[in-house]
Design a protein that fits this description.
It is a single chain. Helix 1 crosses helix 5 (172-188). 30% of the residues lie in helices and 29% in strands. It is built from seven helices and eleven strands. It is globular, with a radius of gyration of 17 Å. Strand 5 and strand 6 form a beta hairpin. The chain has helices at residues 13-26, 48-61, 104-107, 123-130, 172-188, 200-203, 206-211; strands at 6-7, 34-41, 65-69, 72-76, 82-86, 93-98, 116-122, 149-158, 161-170, 196-197, 217-220. It has one domain: Dihydrodipicolinate Reductase, domain 2 (2-Layer Sandwich), CATH 3.30.360.10. The two termini are 31 Å apart. It is α+β, with helices and mostly antiparallel strands.
């Protein structure tokens, strides 16, 4: 902060998009009782980078998953819960793995007062990433994008109130590049909201940032 430098450690599809959606859903509020981030992936064919990052993460966690509950991080080694999540159209109800370790359990509470942050992954995608036999993504069109589709569903609850934000698109890896480039452009043009080591939702105007990505994904959040 003293050097007036912006450092955003998590700005990809995982780590960046979820935090931006949560921040947009909260509509300027800084506190809530609970946040739910559900990832609806049609499939998950990991890149070599994803495989390597996942192996490092598992090693650091000693194979345990990380959960944000009661205002702090917990490490759990028992079997994660399996439940049904009602995604908006076109996905609808899907089986998901609860407490699926994601960066959101760290990024969201780094700048918002939320004691409970819960993350979910569609069971089919979780099986894909867990299998060493799942091949890397294959291009399905001249742009190089795969045919994978995604829907990120964010639900924020505070007392009896509930707010929702949704992002839909194709190819989680193809969306990472626009996220990073938009962030860099905003930093270089002085449109970051603060300095220091910050998450995406703290660094930028989340609703405006998400609207700027309209060529790459569709988003819905409270106006």
């Amino acid at each position: 902060r003293e050097a007036e430098t912006v450092v955003v450690p998590a700005m990809a599809f995982f780590g960046g998009l979820g935090d931006l959606l949560v921040t947009a859903a909260m509509g300027g509020r800084t506190a809530a009782d609970e946040v739910h981030v559900a990832y609806g992936l049609s499939s998950w064919h990991p890149t070599a980078g994803t495989r390597t990052a996942g192996a490092v993460s598992r090693q650091r966690r000693d194979g345990r998953r990380v959960v944000r509950t009661g205002g702090r991080l917990e490490y759990r080694a028992d079997a994660p819960p399996t439940l049904e999540w009602r995604f908006p159209a076109p996905l609808g109800p899907r089986t998901v793995i609860g407490e699926f370790t994601m960066a959101d359990v760290v990024t969201v509470p780094s700048h918002l007062s939320v004691p409970e942050v819960r993350t979910y992954m569609t069971a089919d995608a979780a099986r894909d990433i867990a299998s060493p036999r799942t091949p890397p993504p294959a291009a399905a069109d001249p742009s190089g994008r795969s045919d994978q589709t995604f829907l990120v569903d964010v639900v924020v609850r505070s007392g009896s109130e509930e707010w929702r934000a949704v992002a839909r698109g194709r190819d989680i890896y193809a969306v990472t590049a626009p996220l990073v480039v938009e962030a860099l452009e905003r930093v270089l043009t002085g449109r970051a909201e603060t300095y220091g080591v910050v998450s995406a939702g703290e660094a930028f105007d989340a609703p405006d940032f998400l609207r700027a990505l309209s060529a790459h994904l569709t988003v819905e959040f409270p106006s």
